[in-house]
Amino acid sequence: MQTYLQLWVLLIPVLGKQIGDFLASSDWLNIRGWTESIIGWSMDATHDLLPSSMQSEFATIQPALESFFIATIMCTVVFAVMMLTLMVVPYIERKFIARLMDRIGATTSLRSLWIGEGNATAGDWWNKLPMGLGKPIGFVNKKLNASFGNDHPEKTISRVNNRGYHGIWFLFPGFFQALADFMKFATKEHMVPDKADKLVFEVAPVIIISTTIMVFAFVPFGPHIWAANPDLSLIFMMAIFGVAPLGVFFAGWASNNKYTLIGGMRSAAQLTAYEIPLLITVLSIAVVSGSFNILEIIDFQIETSNTWNIFILPLGAVLFLVTMIAEVERIPFDMPEAEAELVEGWWTEYGGIRWGLMFAVEMMRAYAACILFAMFFLGGWEFPFQDSLSSLPFIGSSFGLIFTIIPGLVWVLLKAWILFAFFVWIRASLHRIRTDQILEFGWLYLLPLSLVNLVIATFLRLEVWSESGWPIWTAPLLSLIAIFFFVIYAIDEDEEALAKSRRPYSTQTLSKAYPGSQRK
Amino acid sequence: MTNPEYNTGHPHATPNFRNLVIRPMWITMKTALRTIPYIGKAKFLKNNYHNQRANMMDEFTSQRIGNNHPSKGHIYSADRESSPALPFLERPVTIMFPYERLEDMEPWLFVPGNYNGRIGIVWETCTACKACIKACPNDCLHMTSETRVNVLDTTNEGDEWHGYGSELEAGGLAAREKETFKQIEDEFDLVNAHKAPPQQYDFAEIIDITGDTATVRWQDGSGIEEIDTSVLKPAEQDIVSGRIDLGRCMFCGLCAEACPFESFFMTNEYDGMTGYNREQLWMDASRTRLLPAVHQERVDMELAKRAEKEKKKRAKKAAKLEA
């Protein structure tokens, strides 16, 4: 028995260092520290309560047990944080894309403030604010709604006119739509196609969902909110991140449907082409930061070098962003789904909770990509120019107070959400590209560029970096070079085509037709 | 950075970073900003699509209804939905054709070749080769042509127009007077006959000419014959009528592609393609006519080609005379 229990010790290298305060950057939200003290205290108490004959035996397995309980609790905490904050992600997706694609302005006309939503009109929404804060606006809204809105003296007609939303007063309308969707998917029938490979069909979603959730074990939400921290967490995490495409291919093949098969094939081709540049880019981050540990990479940006990696490796940031968008299969790289041509791609045949969970996983992967970008390039849980702001004369101390009060979790989440909004912006703007173009782009451009980026990173680390930090010119110079190239590409206009586009003939009718013109 | 391979003739159709990424993202960002009250009013966010007003009163109606009519001076904007309280947020839904036109509101749609509109034909350069009719998958093109002898070709030495007509050439058409030629000319009374005049010529395709001997294939089916060129006159295929049943047309543009003489075009125009019954969709030559000036470049190319041919012919003739 004792020998088997001691096997828990094997978990320690996987779960990583147990001491939370090895980080130079820290904040007061020390969930890990709190957990460690509680578990340590309770384990010590257990040790003392045991009969003295068993105490020495218990002492041998105590570290392993502590490690196990801490890991369990922290996994739960991280999972809870991830799931709760994930709800914001589809909300951003829906609301922001509505504005980006809203040619007519109806979504956000001020009219929507008094046109009703749900059983309550927007005026009532204001009225429900605590302590009557919204009463004046609610009154005006009521009047406006009576004149120009959907309200009707007949209550039933009013309720028909005013659409419903899943929201309560302290959250925005539509926030719980994702939850409602989940309930719907959860109650749907599970159907497997007749000729499908049933075992693989059932296993594929499990592979996809479980590996994606496992990624978050290595994603820190704050200096003290992380589940596991092995020394090579970066490599471990990227390896797990790369398992899901296998499940995608399984799903596409097992469904026994031409659309899913094409989707699965495309997925395999695309992810092979983009995973290599992604990994090489991630390698360049490890080279520059001098560590394969995610926490240490963040700590390097915040404390050791005090410079975010995006200013050191702008090319790496672009490559990481592009390959990550491809990796999480979002527009413009959503070729495996391509709902216009492949119905819904590799998940055409899935329905019910499997579909719902895989959709959630899609969001989770995008969310993980955003958080990882924030970790690798945007300094993790540090506010932009936090140190400079804190050291300003006169107002610096108040900034310092703000940064002390607000935990790093907030900055991590804000960065991730803003990055996700950027993903949505890209989705609203760009086209899905063709299969051959996507592969050409991956192999011919991204792969060489990522190698160039790796060379740059190695040069910077070996020749430029010194123990005192980056030289003063490094970040400004590299950022300026990046901005220069961006501007060059952004203003690139085809003058020749512009000259050519002059029409050789006129398409306009000189005298326009109008009723009565034929009577002259 | 500009790849000449991608020069598609329009700057917005060049697939570079600017057009594929920067511009779409800027457009969507502007769209998003436009939805925000007050900020959305900023001038640089405006486009010429919004807030267009249309005066729907034409001069004739204006005269007809007089000055006291309530419609006088009324500006219609039925397709601009808004709220009376906040008129600055509007949604254009419809283009009020014909008072507004898509060309004015979205001119970028009218890039040449962007879509196939009404069929336009430069009849001046059409040779009645009927390649378009062979290409048409819907059988909507119809052409009647007639083999004729041009008066220009029948001139004798000393006539004012002698030498301007065409000549016998391989691949062309030739005509031989029938035996009854003189008789028909003398006896046929066009005024009282109430029927078409009988054919005065036998027509043939010229397969080859060597010296004064021409190998011809008679069109009446009597076979191939070698014949002396002195009895032959040059003939030509003339268009009697060209009509298009637009009700059957699917605007595929295969006819325009098939045309070897730069005279068949798919235009950008969409006017005048309506009717109250299917017969009104039969478009005759005058409804398909494109003025040569409209496609001047192409027509000039074709005319230059023909002038070159004519020049060669005359040089050959002069050389022959000298010899």
Structure description:
The complex is a heterodimer of chains A (520) and B (323). Chain A folds into two domains: 108-172, no CATH class; 185-488, no CATH class. In chain A, 63% of the residues lie in helices and 0% in strands. Chain A has helices at 2-6, 11-15, 31-49, 52-86, 88-100, 122-127, 135-148, 155-161, 177-186, 198-215, 233-241, 244-254, 258-289, 294-304, 309-312, 314-327, 352-376, 386-390, 396-405, 408-429, 435-464, 474-490, 495-500. Chain B has 323 residues and is of the alpha+beta class. Chain B is 25% helix and 19% strand. Chain B has nine helices and eleven strands. In chain B, strands 4, 5, 6, 7, 8, 9 and 11 form a seven-stranded antiparallel beta sheet that branches. A two-stranded antiparallel ribbon of chain B has the order 1-2. In chain B, strand 7 and strand 8 form a beta hairpin. Chain B is elongated and about 90 Å long. At the A-B interface, helix 5, helix 7, helix 20, helix 22 and helix 23 of A face helix 1, helix 2, strand 2 and helix 9 of B.
In short:
The complex is a heterodimer of chains A (520) and B (323). Chain A has 520 residues and is mainly α. Chain A is built from 23 helices and no strands.
Topology:
The complex is a heterodimer of chains A (about 525) and B (about 325).
Chain A (H helix, E strand, L loop, with lengths): L1 H5 L4 H5 L15 H19 L2 H35 L1 H13 L21 H6 L7 H14 L6 H7 L15 H10 L11 H18 L17 H9 L2 H11 L3 H32 L4 H11 L4 H4 L1 H14 L24 H25 L9 H5 L5 H10 L2 H22 L5 H30 L9 H17 L4 H6 L20
Helix pairs in contact in A: 3-4, 5-20, 9-17, 10-11, 10-12, 10-17, 12-13, 13-16, 13-21, 16-21, 17-20
Chain B lengths: L16 H18 L24 H7 L14 E2 L9 E2 L9 H4 L13 E3 L9 H5 L5 E8 L24 E5 L3 H7 L2 H4 L7 E10 L2 E6 L4 E6 L3 E14 L8 H5 L5 E3 L15 E2 L1 H4 L7 H27 L1
Antiparallel strand pairs in B: 1-2, 3-10, 4-9, 5-6, 5-9, 6-7, 7-8, 9-11
